[in-house]
Amino acid sequence: MSTRDTNRLGKGLNSIFGQDVSKVLEDIQNGDVKTEKQEQTKINIDQIRPNPYQPRKVFDDTALQELSQSIKQHGVFTPILVKKSIQGYDLIAGERRLRASKLAGMSDIPAIIVDLNDQEMMEIALLENIQRENLNGIEEAKAYEQLIQRLNYTQEQLANRVGKSREHITNTLRLLKLPEDVQEYVVQKKLSMGHVRALIGLKDENMIRKIAKQAIDQGLSVRKIEQLVKDLQHKKEPEKQVEENIFIKEAKNKLEEYFQTSVKVSEHSISIHYENEEDMNRILELLNLIEE
Fold first, then answer.
1. Does the residue 220 lie in any domain?
2. Are residues 156 and 203 in the same domain?
3. How far is CA 164 from CA 170, 193, 196, in A?
């Protein structure tokens, strides 16, 4: 990481894309590089507003308490990053240190003030968390949604920005179609990503909620949920099925994994299920049948 690459941070994040955003921020905080209009100081904690674009909504209380005890004994080693606002400062990076410092009863915290606009703040907050892979699936999906809606990214552009595949972006965004209370089960770590991915194929939200609750209450495995969903789909849509041999079964499983939806093999035909027009476009994109 050269100073030449990072001293343009205040002029736009395009200068550091293709590199690890979280590494850039760590270099700045550690004093390894300087940015334009940079100032290091101590700031009253009450003057700092949390980053409104922070995608992480759940913080581990035990880990925060441990960090708080360390700060009480040794202080904050790595300064947080902030930008000046009309009233006080907006946090850019370092929310765990800020929260732990509050728990430790600290009145101020070491900080580096940098000059960023709102778009840069949002991109940094979202990209740093995505790159560090410490978001749950719902937080990651909402982060992608924000980048698409606020910055008008296409899924292809977003995939290039965050270093993920287009398919990963599409499949992650599909999680937001789940009922909000089921999404919350993931945030609270009551259900895994495997559980809720299996539920996406169902159309009935009440049935999704019912199976999700059943999975929590009975401790059902992902495989069990997948089987429950398949049984429901076959009950609602009876079709003459080809007697599956091992090759057809393997092909069917691969197709369902690739399209992230139910696939049925009937006599001389393959049917791919879709939820709505948006979902159909997603499948057509996977088949390269839609021009960018």
1. yes
2. no
3. 10, 17, 21
The first and second tokens of residue 45, run together, are 């904690």
Range of the domain at 160: 131-176
Q: Is residue 26 part of a domain?
A: no
pTM, whole model, 2 decimals?
0.56
For CA atoms 148, 154, 157, 158, give the dihedral sign: positive
Please tell me which residue in 95, 139, 140, 256 is annotated as part of the active site: 95
Write the pLDDT tens digit of every residue in 47-90: 998 877 776 766 777 878 888 888 888 888 888 888 888 888 88
In the chain the first and final C-alpha atoms are separated, in Å, by: 34
Domain final position from 233, 254, 272: 233
- Structure confidence by residue, pLDDT tens digits, 103-134: 889 989 988 888 777 777 777 777 766 665 56
Q: Would residue 95 show up in a list of annotated catalytic residues for this protein? A: yes
Kindly report the CATH number assigned to the domain that includes residue 162. 1.10.10.2830
H/E element holding 169?
helix 166-173
